[in-house]
Fold these 2 entries.
Entry 1:
Amino acid sequence: MKHLLKLSDLSAAEIESILNLADRLKKERRMGIHHTYLAGKTLGMIFQKASTRTRVSFEAGMIQLGGSALFLSDKDLQIGRGESIEDTARVLSRYLDVIMIRTFKQQDVENLASYSTIPVINGLTDYAHPCQVLADLMTIREYKKNLAGRTLCYIGDGNNMANSLIVGGIKLGMKVHIACPETNKPDAEIMKWASENGEFLCTPDILLAAKDADVLYTDVWASMGQESEAEERKKIFKGYQINDDVLKVAKSDCMVQHCLPAHKGEEITADVFESHADEIFDEAENRLHAQKAVLLKLLMPEID
Ligand code: CP
Ligand code: NVA
């Protein structure tokens, strides 16, 4: 694995190997075992959008592995004044050991990687959120023990989360059901790939998608960059919500996941959120462990 740009670049074995290492790191942290695998290494984190979890978990993770991390906001970088991604990549490659970028266009991340001589990690684009889905798969595996054959139902916008969940879920043998309005489906190529490579359903019918689900997942109706559409989106997504009625048709031990931040009362009710808060905050915690595993796989490929 040279970069982490999107999950479709990874094999199922590579994803499983990241999850296994993440499990080990989590267990060892609980036991007070600390590592300095990345001593002397520096991560640069370029943010063109806001973040709580991604920023803090990458920065803390790098420090916990003996390295350091730099927060690089586009307000301060010359990118904000028009310096190209390609030139930024060639400069940062001379100073750093690994780059994480959160931005809008997936193509910018791909360009950064192709001009960079060091690994690049996608910390969210409009197209994909691979780091989040690695943590999600890790969490589902913790609760359910196995992923293959489990049904993951995502309710809401066919956005970056939906795209990455489809790819990650199908790669690891899950059945993936998406409930979304006809106007807001996930990426067409990803859906085609999913239909050809696993059990995949995309429907506007929420209860059909949620039937017998092992995991219900949702995300905000308006993603970062869509703030001006928020009111219009409230109309489009009305009803695309995880609530008691939806939980009733899922398996009785169905878990609930949310990448956060949550808009309670929109994509999820406050009651459902609170009654599944342990699962949701375990998921948030697992960002830390999963990303430490990604950093190690990129910088110390021999690690297991
Ligand atoms: N889930 C997630 O990526 O959270 P942040 O936007 O806070 O990083
Ligand atoms: N779809 C959301 C995910 C946030 C983690 C967004 O892009 O804003």
Note: Strands lie at 42-47, 68-73, 98-102, 120-122, 151-155, 175-179, 200-203, 215-218, 255-258.
Entry 2:
Amino acid sequence: MRSTSPVFTGLPTTIFEVMSRLAIEHGSINLGQGFPDVDGPEDVRAAAAKAIMDGPNQYPPMLGIPALREAVAATEKRFFGLERDPAGEVIVTSGATEALSDCIMALVEPGDEVVLFEPLYDCYVPLVERAGGIARFVRLAPPDWAVTDAALEAAFSDRTKLVLINNPLNPASKVFGAEELSRIAALVERFDAYVIADEVYEHLVFDGLKHIPFSSLPGMEARTLRVGSAGKTFSLTGWKVGYITGPKALIEPVAKAHQFTTFTTPPHLQKAVAEGLAKGDEYYRDLAGDLERKRDRLRAGLEGLGLQCLDASGSYFLTADIRPLGLGDDVEACQRMTREAKVTAIPVSAFYRTDPPRHFVRFCFCKRDAVLDEAVARLRAWIAGR
Ligand code: PMP
Ligand code: GLN
């Protein structure tokens, strides 16, 4: 048999799918893969249902329906003061995953170096390598996952083409501050690089912090492609509606990658997301406020069991140190917790390419309070019975 792509051949199935399958198999509470257990706003879902029945259900425009491109631009202006031309600076994609793939395919040429921050979301490295790029890592160390100048300097070189930054950061739930972002931006400028800013958790920020889009930093607008996801903003992760915004010159090649990847995204979902984005500021406030309360609830529960959690200022996730469980590494611990305690989490080592820490697991807290409480109760009973 002829060989198949070395980038994908032999790659393990993504940890999110692996743990979700295991959770189903064992009737476990799934605090692994990041998805809410209550669907997002009823009016947004009703708008999608109505749009299916009213039609048309044919190919919408390749770059996204005008109403959604306008809504994305208006939302970026409302929350972050960014100015985007909906006609040429916004592309609607089938999820942030497609958006990331389009951006990487459009920017990276064989031999280009791409700076990535580790821990990182698991699709980044394969996509970079599929484009022929070479990953260079900036390692972020717990507990605060700070960006050091030494690590930055070591990762950049004259071959750096692109920096891919996820903020807020999955799985660390770090929200990058202005000072750190400016230091990264200075290197981007110095090495004349582009930036992909994966900002899917832009509205899920807690503790009074404010999300700072990379595009809003001085000099970065012309270099940055910003990626968002309606799945996160509306608690509808299965919808897979994402967007890319950026300067025309970069959007142009990205649109060509998009046209031969999915070409477009279901029109009824686009219409509904356009309506959703226009919701008042209180919707966005309540979304973050509810999640912040859930984070605190799960954190209190886990710490009551002796599992220390790291700070988590954004996204859906809490990282807990599992050493007190005495269960071996994070992969073993997550397997046993699923089979024996019937609670599922994600081993944080899955977010590293090399030499991962093996004592952290990631718990997802975007679940009903009763489910979070039941998960903690199951863990308590299990720990007591061991
Ligand atoms: N980026 C990050 C950091 C994520 O956590 C996720 C997970 N959903 C995605 C991208 C993908 O988003 P989507 O479901 O819209 O493809
Ligand atoms: N982003 C989600 C997470 O981190 C997973 C999405 C997926 O499974 N592709 O849990």
Note: The pocket of 4'-deoxy-4'-aminopyridoxal-5'-phosphate (ligand 1) is lined by residues 34, 95-97, 121, 166, 170, 198, 200, 229, 231, 237, 240, 242 (CB under 6 Å).
